[in-house]
Amino acid sequence: MVFAYNPQRAIAESLSLGIFLSFVLISLIFQTAFLLEIPNLAILLEAILVLLTVKYLLDHRLVLIKAVKSIGKFIKAHKIIAGIVIVCWVYLFFLVAIIPPSNWDSMTYNLSRVFLFQQEKSLFLENVTNIRQGMLVMGADILNHGFLRLNQDYGVGIFSWLAYISVCLGTYGLSRNFASKKVSIATALIITSLTEFCFQATSTKNDIFTAASAIFCFIVADRLLAQPNVKNVALLLLGLAYGFSAKTTFVAFMGPFGLGFLALALWKIGWKKLYQIIAHNWLYFLILTAPILIISQSWLFMHNTVTAQDPTGGATIRIVRQSNNMIYDVIGGVGNLVRYFFQSIHLFPLDYIARGRLNFDLAEYFTNIYNQIFQPIFRAHGMGYVGSKPYMFQLKSLPHEDFSWYGPFAVTIILPAIFWSLIRGNYWLKVQSLSLLGFMFIVSFKLVWTPWTNRYVVLFFAASGACVAFMLQQIPSKYQSKILNGIIAISLFLLISASVLNVSKPLGGLSITEFFKPNIWSRTELGGDRLYYARKRYKDDRVEKFRDLVTPGSKVALLANEKTWIYHFYLVNPQVAIVPTSLTEFKNNSQVYDYLLCLNTECNLNDIGTTHKLLWKSSTESARQGKLIKLKT
User: Fold this and answer.
1) What is the DSSP letter of 207?
2) Which residues cross the membrane (predicted)?
3) 30-74 pLDDT tens trace
């Protein structure tokens, strides 16, 4: 924050930039250490970074003091709003710091791959259960190494929470550059209370980092237009590189934003000035090349191209549309835009309350409208497939990160604001709105629709703050105060609802009876039961059996498929080497293993040529197959 401080800008903006830069630095340190195959080098680099940070803070302590006073003054001036927001943010922090992770993707690859990195002491994985573990970008996932290297998972969601805070603060700071304080507060609260955005704040998925990257780029680009200098150019390059390393869908934002901002910068700053910045600081940019190459995952794309003849190693084949028919492509893209619009009619928590208390499902009502009018037109074009059948379009009144959307403000304020900024905004606002619309069009036309593509578009909604502030600022003064007060009140209600009613980590239900049923804190014994979600999924104690029956220092062959939750097995037995393999490879090399762990798959061991003993087998009550076998008995 102190490094990014600008006396002409809001403190919130500097805080937002500071949080994001910490992601960049930590990710760079971890990636560098693993690329050198010396993971422990990260500890030394972190220590050096801490010492440099302390020295920098001491040298600029007046800025820090000013920031603390400014924050205190703001809280004092807006006690009720600040109080409610702080309580909700603190509660969300406790969820990510104490409650164990549960996201399906994280159990199969986001967090699981970090254990594989640590075990192999390398980012180039050869043995995986899911192709995404080794082939997809890892700029955000690698951050969790900071916690998982301690062989525990308390706090693994903190970086998602920080990304959420960064976006909220950045939205306020960006809005304050041209809007009043009250408009900026209302805008920040709109973004803060977006339902799916709140849910992602307590998740361990990487999508939320794309929104943080977009806000970072908008802020730095705004600074660059006002103050063209080498620092802002470098920060913008780092922001784009990190966003791309967090999730490949960020490229759908990079293209429109890069082209639009470059055109605007050439017009407002001039190519001569930009050339001078680069030419006079060529050594600076030369030194910056190495960190950018690492952060941007260029090394990973080169590796994937060499080993799999595909930059993503084929890991995106199921979500990227494959078609040779342009007409069907257009129909599918337009169909996805219509589907996303229907999903944007998300009246949380009213839909959830109506279903639970009135037995009326708003989601089903809008799904029927789509099926009657648009299904005959778009059919399965643009849809993803499960097996040989396309997914059915269906809205769900379920406050869960995999199925929820972005609340009532998505369609009532954010969508109109983006188009309003495109039509009535200045050139910089037009670039921002075009960047967001371009992102949405690319996602709609290039990625298939699935029930969980909701998370891909978090960037579109969460990074729209400047457009929202611009539209709210245009409200006639005689109506503005009342409208803003209403927006603020509704936003606070939505924020509280999203914090309490998240069904994957519920605090309460829709009635007094349901509210006092066991919540996530009692179910997990205040976070002490780290295997709660594993038992819930498997409906048995296989993870505990694995922990208790396998001898430390052993080597375990793992037979599993891409949908298997392998995370907990690495968590509970860190002194054991668990090597994903195939049945054929295992039979050819069974002598090098001490145990065989079979998950979600049949294990036919009739011809392995070695004695073995069955230690554990899943029962008929278990949700999924499983065996633990001791070899060389």
Assistant:
1) T
2) 12-35, 41-58, 79-99, 154-174, 208-226, 233-262, 282-302, 403-423, 429-449, 456-477, 483-503
3) 999 999 999 999 999 999 999 998 898 888 888 888 888 999 999
Band (pLDDT 50/70/90 cuts) for residue 188 is: very high
Single-letter residue type at 323:
S
What token pair was written down for 28? 């760079």
Could you tell me if 161 and 93 are in contact, meaning their C-beta atoms sit under 8 angstroms apart?
Answer: yes
List the Cα angle 251/255/257 in 5-degree steps: 110
Q: How many H helices and E strands in the chain?
A: 33, 7
Which residues does residue 614 pair with via DSSP β-bridges, in sequence order? 629
Q: What is the C-alpha separation between 211 and 239, in angstroms, rounded?
A: 11
Tell me whether the omega of the peptide bond preceding residue 349 falls within 30 degrees of 0, making it cis.
yes
Judged on CB neighbours under 10 Å (0-12, 13-18, 19+), 317 is exposed
- Take residue 8 and report the two structure tokens written for it: 């002409």
Amino acid sitting at position 476: P
> At 614, which helix (H) or strand (E)?
strand 612-617
72-93 tens-digit pLDDT: 999 999 999 999 999 999 999 9
Q: H or E element: which one contains 556?
A: strand 555-559
Nearest to 470, CA basis, from 264, 80, 171, 163: 171
What pLDDT, on the 0 to 100 scale, is given for residue 62? 87
User: Rounded CA gap, 438 and 630, in Å?
Assistant: 55
Work out the widest C-alpha separation in the chain, in whole angstroms: 85
Calpha distance 93→161 (Å, rounded)? 7
Q: Using one digit for the tens of pLDDT, what is the confidence trace for 325-344?
A: 788 889 999 999 999 999 99
Residue 269 CA, chain-centre distance (Å), reads 34
Whether the Cβ atoms of residue 82 and residue 75 lie closer than 8 Å to each other: yes
Sign for the CA dihedral angle at 170, 175, 177, 183 comes to: negative
What is the C-alpha to C-alpha distance for residues 235 and 217, in angstroms, rounded to an integer?
8
**Per-residue three-class SS string for 413-474:** HHHHHHHHHHHHCCHHHHHHHHHHHHHHHHHHHHECECCCHHHHHHHHHHCCHHHHHHHHHC
| Residue-wise pLDDT tens digits, 541-551 | 999 999 999 99
Answer yes or no: are the C-beta atoms of 184 and 469 closer than 8 Å: yes
Letter string b/e over residues 178-201, b meaning 16 or more CB atoms within 10 A of that residue's CB: bbeebbbbbbbbbbbbbbbbbbbb
pTM of the model: 0.95
Angle between helices 427-446 and 326-344 (to 10 degrees): 110
Tokens of 53: 């940070």
- The set of residues, in sequence order, having a beta carbon less than 8 Å from that of 450 and lying 6+ positions away, is 319, 383, 384, 391
Residue 633: what pLDDT? 64
Question: Which pLDDT score is estimated for 151?
Answer: 94
Extract the tokens encoding 442.
């690319």
CA angle 532, 104, 553 (to 5 degrees): 65
**How far apart are alpha carbons 437 and 439 in whole angstroms?**
5
Please give the mean pLDDT across all residues of the chain.
Answer: 92
What pLDDT is attached to residue 601? 86
CA distance 12 to 21: 14
420-446 confidence digits (pLDDT tens):
999 999 999 999 999 999 999 999 999
- Cβ-contact 170, 217 below 8 angstroms: no
> For the domain with range 532-631, which CATH number is right: 1.20.120, 3.40.960, 3.30.390, 3.40.190?
3.40.190
Structure token digits, residue 7: 């006396």
- Residues above pLDDT 90, as percent of the chain: 79
In the chain, domain spans: 159-530, 532-631
Non-local (6+) Cβ contacts of 314 within 8 A are 131, 135, 308
